[in-house]
Amino acid sequence: MGILAAGRLPAAPAAVSDPLLRERLLAGEIIARETNSDQAGAAGRMQMLVHAPAPAVWEVIVSCDLAYAFVDGLQGCEVLEDAGDRALVHQVVNQSWLIPTYDFVFESLRHHYERIDVRLLEGNLKALDGHWSFQETDDGTIIDYRIRIQPSLPAPRFIVRRNISKGMPDMLACIRGLAGGSGSALLERQDLDRCPGPVPASSPGQ
Description:
This protein has an eight-stranded antiparallel beta sheet. Helices cover about 25% and strands about 35% of the residues. The protein is an alpha+beta fold and about 210 residues long. It contains five helices and eight strands. Helix 4 (about 155-180) packs antiparallel against helix 5.
């Protein structure tokens, strides 16, 4: 689920009542609702509209195989335990030679096709916590993604800013493309081009 972060995040509905915000989502924009970063870590909340049912997006997010496409620098991913509503996942991520390789295990609490909560169990991150919510609408599925991360050691400020301002939107665009929910062939190609890792040949648009 990418690199996630610190302190328990409150669940938030993905509903969008603002007509201007809805228009931006319909246009394919990935909207940053909140972002902040410093050398100690980063946090963000983003929303996107996917023209696919919630299960299609869900299956991408929980897949270790597809995570190599949408998680920047993913070197290893293994599901250690999967009880349906709870899973333990081991990931190894190396995004830059300027920061350490992250090796960690996180817990994924799953309310099928509605919400996923993620928290750190062990590893060389100081903290990680994240939340996904899914809401199906007449236009498609609205994905609301919140994340905070605190590495064990301070990271260069420009890398932290990049991971929030570019890394999060690219990851979400890639997930939308992998789920076949971009809304048009052109946008699908653009979404898949933003994947930080290799896109499987069997994915949409390939």
